[in-house]
Amino acid sequence: MDFELKTLTSHQAASMAADALILLWPDRADEAAGGIDDPLTLWARGAVADKDIEPAAGSCLLAHRLPGVQPRRLALARAGDGSAAAVRKAVLAALKALPQDALKRLVLLAGNIAAPAVSAAVQAVSEASYRYVATKSQAKPRALQKVTVGVADAGAVRQAFEQGVAVAHGVEWAREWANRPGNHATPTLLAEAARQLGRQPKVSVEVLGPKEVAKLGMGAFMAVAQGSSEPLRFIVLKYQGAAKSSVPVVLVGKGITFDTGGISLKPAPEMDEMKFDMGGAASVLGTFAALARLQPAINVVGLVPSCENMPDGRAIKPGDVVTSMSGQTIEILNTDAEGRLILCDALTYAQRFQPRALIDVATLTGACVIALGGVRAGMYANRDELAQALYQAGEQALDPCWRMPLDDEYAEGLKSPFADMANVAGRPAGSVTAAKFLQKFVGEAPWAHLDIAGVAWKGGAAKGATGRPVPLLVQYLLDEASRLAQEPRRSAKTAAKTPRKR
Ligand code: BES
Ligand code: MN
Ligand code: ZN
Fold first, then answer.
1. pLDDT, tens digit (0-9, with 9 covering 90-100), for 221-240
2. What digits encode the pLDDT tens for the residues 67-83?
């Protein structure tokens, strides 16, 4: 699907060859002065004046073959205050109301729209028209091929438009891979997909297998993988958009391609949803897909430990003690708390980059779903500045998170009589104690953890991956790139000698 941005009047839009036209109508358009005589605007004005359309954002009115208008299907969509959130609602509703199979070419007429709303509009078109077809023999792929976004001044919103297109691409990448069933998205296949990303400019990818991982001493990661006949993969991606000496942001994504719970087996109902347990990995890879398009001036490293969590004669057992790459030993009391075991070794590996920020993304705990549901991701950070930056990025990208606590008292329950720590504490505050476990492996790095268990996919009738938090991560990295541009130049060497104020 291609997007283009054009300066368009409603006169011009009405004469475009397209299968449908969506006319975004913010509240302020109600009061706009008259004198416009194009058929689209007259139709919309009349419908609003006659109260044929509700005022709330997301309300829609359809029309068919309006005289003087080329696209034969029209949707008038109320866009409230014109904010990104309201525009997103409007576009999603309009595409729900239109017959999508009949739409190859779409015009989205947005007039005097603000920059963040342009990005939201593009993402909403992608979100509403995405179709999963990879493992269906009869499914029709998405019909939509070309989307023209018409605005009053294309130059003023060009950058936001490009960001929207790149984020949409990253989100689709993440949704696609998270949606694929466990047997179609093994660690090996996921690594192959990551390798494809390595063909893009400024992106390189390296994939480590069991031998290399053993050599690194990733005992916790290997312990989880040992119950599966699928070999583990450790994927290392690098996006180099800034000088070599510029220290990177490191992203870590949980890549459990299927989580049975292991010997601490999960109950059968809804276990299929544990194919989404690589949602963190998918979002990190999707973020790289977006970076490759946007080419921002920043260095980013992506780390994805990927394996299955299976019960088996060789699988880890409750009570087993393993040695992590950091040297710390872990008593595995519950084999279903496997995400933290693969992440802790990736966090240790990340130390070699002396990251500017270290951010892990994981479908880590059911407890986070209970705490925050599907609206906001749980966010933990050991620096206020980083927490603030991630919070703001989430708000701006309509991909919100909420900061959670890291008081040391929460780590009490992780004490073990047989190892340096246990991999689980009691039931209370399960998302927090998981974060406290991870914190033992981050050293002095500015670190944040996103528990995306509630937001990475939707269950029920509309079951499927969301691609979150790609929008948040891309926004954060673009913000970070502009902060970096404002900093005086520092090389990695001086950064190592003189601890920087973070
Ligand atoms: N992948 C799950 C977390 C999860 C569960 C995400 C349900 C979304 C929905 C994770 O590996 C897990 O099993 N966590 C356990 C931890 C517990 C054993 C301390 C959990 O949340 O039950
Ligand atoms: Mn688990
Ligand atoms: Zn898991």
1. 999 999 999 999 999 999 99
2. 999 999 999 999 999 99
Two tokens, residue 264: 């601490």
Query: Which residues, 6+ apart, have CB-to-CB distance to 91 below 8 Å?
Result: 22, 24, 77, 108, 120, 121, 124, 125, 128
Pocket test for ligand 1, best of 258, 365, 451 (most atoms within 8 A of CB): 365
What per-residue confidence (pLDDT) applies to 31?
83
Q: What's the whole-model pTM score?
A: 0.97
Which numeric CATH code is attached to 175-491? 3.40.630.10
CATH of 2-152 among 3.40.50.2300, 3.90.180.10, 3.40.50.300, 3.40.220.10 = 3.40.220.10
**In the chain, which segments carry CATH 3.40.220.10?**
2-152
Run of H or E including 358: strand 357-362
Q: In this predicted structure, what is the pLDDT of residue 501?
A: 43
Question: Which residues sit with their C-beta closer than 6 Å to ligand 1?
Answer: 259, 277, 334, 336-339, 363-367, 369, 424, 430, 453
In the DSSP assignment, the letter for residue 499 is P
